[in-house]
Amino acid sequence: MILHTPQNTQEVRDLVSDALAGGGKLEITGGATRLAFGAPDRQADRLSLAALSGILEYDPAELVLTARAGTALAELNEATAAQGQALAFEPWGAAGSTIGGVVAAGVSGPRRVSAGAVRDHLLGFEAVSGRGDSFRAGAKVVKNVTGYDLPKLVCGSWGRLAALTEVTLKVLPRPPECQTLLWRGLEDEAGFALLREAMRQPVDAAAASYLPGHAALVRLDGFGPSVAARKAHLTTALERYGLPDVLDAHEAAPLWASLRDGAALAPELPLWRLSLPPRQALAAIAPLLALGGRYVADWAGGLIWLVLEGHEDIVRAQAALAGGHATLARAPAALRARIPALHPQPPAIEALSRRVRRAFDPMGVFEINRFLDEPNAD
Q1: CATH topology of domain 177-258
Q2: CATH 3.30.70.260 residue spans of the chain
Q3: Non-local CB neighbours of 229 within 8 Å, separated by 6+ positions
């Protein structure tokens, strides 16, 4: 495996062109913090975009920020915080995580349930396709209605379409006050019901999650008087669940951080990420809990992080039965070598996905069989 570290977009183009000419494969990385996702032993040279870093433009008044794809997420968080702003979809990652990696992996935190996902905040990008061509899509404005919505397409594409070199994101004002309401001592069914009811109330809940055996959490963001009024309304509307405890932003931060990636669960066990309709979520995972599974619920019950040893077919079957899907987020290499990380798609959708990938990458330069679905791209 050869590590390539291009310093600019032209060098990225040259490396892709060289791979095309030589029949090589390239694995795109940023901070290399998500290499353990997907099948191991990928036969490809590594194309690291970490050197393509730095904020290119930031206009706080227009709520728009443009940065090179290798820019550390921590740098963007620091720059926006200094202006009283933030990336509202609450991206997360290990130390060294880059904004390009966040976009390519489609990473969003607990606030996704109210503020939207990363795809809702990516305004535009620059990238190099598998043809060795650089191109731009979207625009550096909040409103953009022309052309195809390629920004949404690259979010969660895991580097299979193009190598991102630059991204433009919408930022939003940082809430001046955040309070988290905790209802303790609830059984699972009551905990999920509380989340759904909280999201239906006219309180603009920013996030809603459930930690089994601990508490149901609802976060309210905004100006002090507004937060106080909404807290009073929510406490009254949900009074049958008891009186909630109230934590400020600092006190609640560890709880919300533990919900972002299933960190509250056993690190030695395989970790699944289940995306499910909130109303069906608890019924879908009940058979998995009977097999020894443990979980936490985010996005008002729409996202389940679950650890379970074995029973991979049952995990996927239960997710599909509920109208959702299950992603293998963390597992030993031997398991990742035989179980695809992404939920298998129906044949017609997979055929369409493959045609889209070939449009961007006709020779399969970026097809390293990370997801065990295309070992011989042509």
Answers
A1: Alpha-Beta Plaits (3.30.70)
A2: 177-258
A3: none
